[in-house]
Amino acid sequence: MTTKEVEAAVNAVRARIRGYNSPPMPVSAQQQATQKSHGRKGPLWISKVAFPAPCEDDARQMLFRSIERLSEEQETWSQPQTVTVDAEWNGHRRSEHAMASEHITAQEEYDGIMRDISSSLTIMHVHGGGFYLHNPNASRSVTANLTKLTGGRCLSIHYRLAPQNPFPAALLDLLIVYLSLLNPPQGALHNTVPASSIVFTGDSSGANLCLSLLQVILDLGRNQSTSKPTVRFNNQDVQLPVPAGLAAICAFIDLTYGLPSVIDNQKFDIIFGREGSPLLRPDFPACAAWPTDPPRGYVYCDISALVHPLVSPTVVRNWVGAPPMMFICGEEVMADSNKLIAQRAAAQGVSVRWEQYSMLPHIFMILLGELSHSTLCFQNWAQFCQECVMPGAEKIGYSGTMIQVETLQSKEVKLEDLTSLTFDEAVALMKQVRGEKKVWYGPTKIKKSTL
Q: For 56-100, how does the pLDDT look when each residue is reduced to its tens digit (9 = 90+)?
């Protein structure tokens, strides 16, 4: 495709997204609209499951202690209860099998998945949606692609959404699901899944949650001085090792919108820039869900928590011990934050694969699936997941590429040269912009933050 053709496609998506919400819909109406079923998305097995809350409180308290240890300031955050977490297993259905009926059982669907897989790979996928929209239905095009390309199975998680369930509710849900893979609850469809077969993947805010969960696991290991920390879960001491790998796709990891690419790359992107979320505009309609009680300045968390490492993983200091990580992004507003993590992790000895697509926007592979660039992205994403669970995964090593928009040619990029922005400079910029944030009390009722 030519540059002009790509620009036209991006502009069409931008117009569709902004036109869809014009005039703006209240948060609760947006949530309702994005909870609708999207169907099977082709030959896909779908087995809906639920992971019950454990009988003890150890995992929840472990998360809270991690939040406190990683804090460098005084943040306000909630302490959610542990609840049952819904999810769905997805797998590619081979052509020789008849179309699955909507009336067959979850067990029959799961049996179909296990019959058709050709790999030990289990992808734990976390959907995006700005922390407040969507569910696994919206990710079926993604999981259909990944399961077909990898031959593995995918577990897509229906985590709790903000603003009704602010940080760290979604993170707690992911922790419960990961522990349930490692130590299945009674009645679970799956057997024990070793961490060496699990790869975390997520797009946008889902990638944020994956990186945050990984950091919680690493923090627990540092606190227990072991690479295989344990947590009490369903009456057993369960080891909590890192997964085999993590693929962060267009990771939404600077919730302050504070870094230079937020301004520099706005012309390429479909999401909002420095002006921030439309949910904070003076004319945005109120509903039962938003503004919250008490009011907040961000849909996912309190303003004070925007620069916490488990809210904006850009500011994570230590990635030592992380498994191989892949970062894929466009030339988007969040590019700098993704570059910072990739560069820092690689410098600390983590195997990192970096892949950026010039002139393409946030989650282009989902919104512009017809592009050859999206096909290439899914192929490389799937290949990375496969490599993570193969013998010798530690040899994935370091690589960086920029994919040219017109030719699809790859240009090598050195990870140490991804950005000249230093870690301390990035943190300072993010804190500066955070200080300009305002609490949203409802239409036309806005007050300056006291930070």
A: 999 999 999 999 999 999 999 999 999 999 999 999 998 766 555
Nearest alpha carbon to residue 193 among 180, 175, 207, 206: 180
What count of Cα atoms within 13 Å lies in the side-chain half-sphere of residue 404? 8
Residue 215 burial (C-beta neighbours within 10 Å; 0-12, 13-18, 19+): buried
Q: Residue 79 and residue 62: Cα distance in Å, rounded?
A: 12
Degrees, nearest 5: CA angle 113-179-77: 125
Query: 303-357 pLDDT, tens per residue?
Result: 999 999 999 999 999 999 999 999 999 999 999 999 999 999 999 999 999 999 9
Q: What angle do CA 222, 246, 423 make, to 5 degrees?
A: 65
Sequence-distant (≥ 6) Cβ neighbours of residue 216 within 8 angstroms: 62, 63, 66, 171, 175, 310
For the beta carbon of residue 116, count every other beta carbon within 10 angstroms: 18
Distance CA 163, CA 255 (A): 15
Residue 212 gets which letter from DSSP? H
User: Do residues 334 and 263 touch, judged by C-beta distance below 8 A?
Assistant: no
Contact 174, 60 (CB under 8 A): no
CA separation for the pair 90, 87 (Å, rounded): 10
- Which residues, including other chains, have CB under 8 Å from residue 436's CB and lie 6 or more apart? 449
* Pair type for strands 410-412 and 153-158: unpaired
Q: How far apart are CA 362 and CA 11, in angstroms?
A: 13
Rounded distance, CA 305 to CA 74, Å? Answer: 8
- Give the number of other CB atoms < 10 A from CB of residue 50: 15
**Exposure b/e, 361-382, CB count within 10 A at least 16 = b:** bbbbbbbbeebebbebbbebbb
Coil, strand or helix at 168: coil
Q: What tokens were used for 112?
A: 């179909």
pTM of the model: 0.96
